[in-house]
Amino acid sequence: MKAKGFTLIELMIVVAIIAILAAIAIPQYQQWKDPKGFAARQAKARAERQNEIAGFRIVNDPQTGCQYISVPGQSLTPRLGTDGKQMCSHAYQ
């Protein structure tokens, strides 16, 4: 007749695997559960969303009558025509 159940080695291996997983998971869970960290992540997400919403603006150049889209952190470079004069895709009167 065949004996049913697990050997001591099998049980020890399972306990060791569970201990390793717990050693990794518990600190991660505590960091995720931290209320100050959650508030900071939430504030950062709000700020990033606001930056995406207001990430560009339209600039009117009164000297040339051109309109440009200005993106923060990027320089504003007007296009030049073949005659060396400034071109714009849309002019207002």
TrEMBL record:
Transmembrane parts of this sequence: 6-26
SUPFAM superfamilies in alphabetical order: Pili subunits (SSF54523)
Keyword line: Membrane, Methylation, Transmembrane, Transmembrane helix
Entry-linked Pfam families: N_methyl
Localization: Membrane
Membrane-related topology note: Single-pass membrane protein
Protein known as: Prepilin-type N-terminal cleavage/methylation domain-containing protein
Taxonomic source organism: Dyella telluris
